[in-house]
From TrEMBL:
UniProt name for this protein: Uncharacterized protein
Length: 154
C-alpha cells in the first residue's frame, strides 16, 4: 500500500459498535478497515520496518510531550492527531490522524484538505496549528538525524 497517498485516518463505529478505521486517500477514495486506528498505525509502521514505540520515544525526545503527538514516518510523511469524535468509553479512540502535507487550511472545528474535502473536527484552530508546528520541528530534526547517519547508506 502506498501510505504517502493517505490524507486522513478517521475513526468510526461499525454496525456492531466496534472501533473501525476509514482511510481517506488524497484522490477522495476511501477504504474501510475493521480495526482501531491505533492497530492500523502499528501495522503501517511495522510494514515500513519502523518500531512504533521507538518512533513515539524519538518524537517525545524532540518535542517534549508524550500525549497526542504527531506520527512521523519520514520528513514528508507526518500524521497530525486531531480529535474527530467524542469518545464513548474511557479507552475509546476519538482521535484521527491527518497527513500534514495534505492540509490546505484549518479553522475552528474543520480542516480543509488539498483535494477540497472538509473534515469536521472537535479541535480548535490553535491546537491544529500547534500540531503543525510540532510536525515542522519533527521534520527538521528528522533531516538532521538522517544526515548524521548518512555515511551508513553509501
Amino acid at each position: 500500500m502506498n501510505y504517502t497517498q493517505i490524507a486522513a485516518l478517521i475513526p468510526f463505529y461499525d454496525t456492531n459498535g466496534e472501533n473501525s478505521t476509514c482511510i481517506l486517500f488524497h484522490d477522495g477514495s476511501k477504504d474501510y478497515k475493521s480495526c482501531s486506528i491505533k492497530r492500523y498505525i502499528h501495522h503501517m509502521l511495522y510494514t515500513l520496518h519502523l518500531d512504533p514505540h521507538a518512533v513515539k520515544h524519538w518524537t517525545y525526545e524532540v518535542i517534549g510531550t508524550k500525549l497526542n503527538t504527531p506520527i512521523i514516518v519520514d520528513h514528508r510523511l507526518i500524521f497530525l492527531p486531531v480529535k474527530l469524535r467524542k469518545g464513548v468509553g474511557k479507552q475509546d479512540g476519538c482521535f484521527g490522524y491527518v497527513n500534514n502535507s495534505f492540509i490546505s487550511s484549518c479553522d475552528n472545528n474543520q480542516i480543509t484538505l488539498t483535494n477540497g474535502e472538509i473534515l469536521p473536527t472537535l479541535s480548535p484552530k490553535s491546537y491544529i496549528q500547534k500540531k503543525q508546528y510540532d510536525a515542522k520541528l519533527l521534520s527538521y530534526a528528522y533531516v538532521d538525524y538522517k544526515q548524521q547517519y548518512e555515511f551508513m547508506w553509501k
